[in-house]
């Protein structure tokens, strides 16, 4: 018996097309894609009015496992991913201990396999313990399955270390993912430097702290020929630098998150610690520049930077609360609401930024044809809903999207032919 998804609007992100069809899954793979497939002998799900897409790919999540599992673990993170339509996620190594050895890479794969609801692809640390001093063994980490390298959560202060990392990653065909903030300039400050930091009487993280590190890492990628991927771009200056570098042929890819094209620093005044994130929400000028960079392809990928924290941690005063917000269960809807509904992007254009584009950075497949592994998701583009963090599968409830009304909702996620989420 197969699983037959009837009457779907199939989105092919590479071809940029939407095709009405039925899709039959047999075992782990897509067996057929055509209109009017016979139902006999199959489990049938009717997707009338829904878009059927390759499973979403999030190349930037924090699953807090090992060591910080009171915030999230690989099982709860995987469940949140499935509920958000994600079938593959890449998790950052800033855990406790840091994922900087082959044994910890294997630990992530084993726990994800046991949870069984999402492919979790570990990113190996750039430096031992993410301390910035000594490079990890890139070849050994890649051999164990590290999908990329990053010290995300903290910047790599040493330009020499980033240069060495780009050179070490290049023969392995892997990207170095850069958390671009000048550490000394941002300290542990809570907000963007500007009107809101002044209103709150707090020191701020200036946009230049991001721009400088982006400029440095682009220069290092240009000089070495290595692949730099710029994480969570939030400033107009970074977007401009990346656009110019791409025009010169630098091997750079880049990402942003829904919060940076949806909200500004003003949200801190309304939502307090829920809006505290690194890099911080910026000005309206930056928000518009990020939107423009998403639309013109400067920013290839949309990721969540899913960063769960406990309620107790986020209840602390703004200067002491940790930075970050969860995003897996709101990302598709947030993007649909901000980008597709107003007519900025078509559905295939959005889905490409959430599937094929990050998959290309990581070097993983996207399901689009018979014979491909059946990692798929379906969403209803009409459903309007209000975000209630208490209903999340994630342990984290911390999001600036709490209470927001969004359009578009994930209804079905299929991982390797198995239904892992279904609210049809
Ligand atoms: Zn980061």
- What's the CATH first level of the largest domain? Alpha Beta
Question: How helical, in percent, are the residues?
Answer: 25-40%
Tell me the radius of gyration. 20 Å
Q: What is the name of the CATH topology of the largest domain?
A: TIM Barrel
Mean pLDDT: 98
For the record, the CATH architecture of the largest domain stands as Alpha-Beta Barrel
For this entry, what is the oligomeric state of its chains? single chain
Profile the largest sheet.
8 strands, mixed
**Count of separate structural domains:** 2
Counting DSSP E segments of at least 2 residues, the number of strands comes to: 18
How are the SSEs ordered, and which strands pair?
Layout: E1 3-12, E2 17-26, E3 29-34, E4 43-46, E5 51-54, E6 56-61, H1 74-83, E7 86-91, H2 102-115, E8 119-122, H3 138-144, E9 149-150, H4 159-169, E10 176-178, H5 183-186, E11 191-192, H6 195-200, E12 204-205, H7 207-224, E13 228-230, H8 236-248, E14 252-256, H9 258-262, H10 267-271, H11 284-295, E15 301-302, H12 311-314, H13 331-340, H14 347-354, H15 356-362, E16 376-386, E17 405-415, E18 418-422
Parallel strand pairs: 1-4, 1-5, 6-7, 7-8, 9-10, 10-13, 11-12, 13-14, 14-15
Antiparallel strand pairs: 1-2, 2-3, 5-16, 16-17, 17-18
Helix pairs in contact: 1-2, 2-3, 4-7, 7-8, 8-11
Bound molecules: zinc ion.
């Amino acid at each position: 018996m197969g699983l037959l998804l009837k009457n779907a609007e199939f989105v092919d992100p590479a071809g940029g097309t939407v095709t009405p069809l039925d899709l039959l899954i047999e075992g782990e793979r897509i067996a057929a894609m055509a209109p009017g497939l016979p139902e006999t002998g199959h489990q049938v799900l009717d997707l009338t009015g829904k878009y059927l897409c390759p499973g979403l790919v999030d190349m930037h999540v924090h699953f807090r496992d090992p060591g910080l599992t009171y915030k999230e673990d690989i099982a709860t993170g995987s469940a949140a991913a499935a509920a958000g339509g994600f079938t593959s996620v890449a998790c950052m190594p800033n855990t406790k201990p840091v994922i900087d050895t082959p044994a910890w890479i294997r630990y992530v794969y084993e726990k994800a396999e046991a949870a069984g609801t999402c492919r979790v692809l570990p990113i190996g640390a750039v430096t031992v313990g993410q301390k910035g001093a000594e490079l990890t063994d890139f070849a050994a980490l890649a051999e164990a399955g590290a999908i990329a390298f990053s010290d995300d959560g903290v910047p790599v202060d040493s330009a020499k270390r980033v240069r060495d990392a780009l050179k070490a990653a290049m023969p392995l065909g892997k990207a170095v993912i850069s958390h671009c903030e000048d550490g000394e300039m941002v300290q542990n400050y809570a907000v963007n430097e500007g009107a809101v930091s002044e209103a709150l009487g707090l020191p701020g993280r200036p946009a230049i702290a991001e721009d400088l590190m982006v400029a440095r890492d682009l220069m290092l990628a240009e000089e070495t020929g290595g692949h730099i991927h710029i994480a969570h771009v939030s400033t107009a200056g970074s977007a401009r630098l990346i656009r110019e570098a791409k025009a010169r042929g630098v091997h750079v890819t880049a990402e942003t998150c829904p919060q940076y094209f949806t909200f500004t620093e003003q949200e801190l005044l309304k939502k307090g610690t829920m809006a505290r994130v690194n890099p911080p929400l910026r000005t309206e000028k930056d928000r518009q520049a990020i939107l423009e960079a998403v639309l013109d392809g400067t920013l290839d990928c949309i990721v969540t930077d899913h960063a769960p924290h406990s309620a107790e941690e986020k209840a602390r005063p703004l200067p002491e609360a940790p930075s970050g917000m969860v995003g897996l269960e709101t990302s598709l809807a947030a993007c649909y609401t901000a980008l597709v509904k107003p007519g900025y992007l078509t559905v295939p254009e959005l889905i490409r930024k959430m599937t094929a584009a990050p998959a290309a950075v990581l070097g993983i497949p996207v399901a689009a044809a018979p014979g491909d592994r059946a990692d798929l998701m379906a969403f209803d583009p009409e459903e309007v809903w209000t975000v209630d963090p208490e209903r999340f599968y994630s342990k984290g409830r911390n999001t600036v999207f709490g209470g927001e009304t969004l359009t578009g909702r994930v209804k079905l996620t299929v991982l390797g032919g198995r239904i892992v989420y279904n609210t049809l």
